[in-house]
Amino acid sequence: MQAIFDHLWRDGSAGTTAAELAGVAATLGIADAEAIVNSTSTKQQLTQNTAAAIEAGVFGVPTLRIGTDLFWGNDASAMVEDWLAEPARFDSDEYRRIAILPVGVERRR
């Protein structure tokens, strides 16, 4: 899992085709990335994982869940660090106020 995260998020490498994933596949011991990417079981698992993420309230990637709280986007790292250092900060009046602001964009199924 770390190899995939590093490939996509740390290194900023593409991951939309088997060719783009060949290097990370080799790191993971996957000999034929093309076969894995195009397999029916991989596509079914992706569909299931996507549906589960949407159901869980995931909006963007990467998403980190701590308990019931979701933090998404590369720029959320500092917020996660704040939450870990002082979780009560996110239970303040200001956070409760912004939690009920109107939604600007809503995912459609």
Structural write-up:
The structure is a single chain. The protein is mainly alpha-helical and 109 residues long. It starts with a helix and ends in a 10-residue tail after the last helix. Strands 1-2 form a two-stranded antiparallel ribbon. The chain has helices at residues 2-10, 18-27, 33-38, 40-56, 77-85, 93-99, and strands spanning 63-66, 69-72. It has a domain at 59-109.
List the helices and strands and how they pair.
Elements: H1 2-10, H2 18-27, H3 33-38, H4 40-56, E1 63-66, E2 69-72, H5 77-85, H6 93-99
Antiparallel strand pairs: 1-2
Count of DSSP-assigned helices:
6
* Count of strand segments: 2
Main-sheet strand order equals: 1-2
The helix/strand series, from N terminus to C terminus, equals HHHHEEHH
The gyration radius over C-alpha positions equals 17 Å
Q: Separation of termini? A: 27 Å
Percent of sequence in beta strands: 5-15%
User: Poorly predicted ranges (pLDDT <50, ≥5 residues)?
Assistant: none
Mean pLDDT: 88
Q: Could you estimate the helical fraction of the residues in percent?
A: 40-55%
Structural class assignment: mainly alpha
Approximate shape: elongated
**Largest sheet properties:** 2 strands, antiparallel
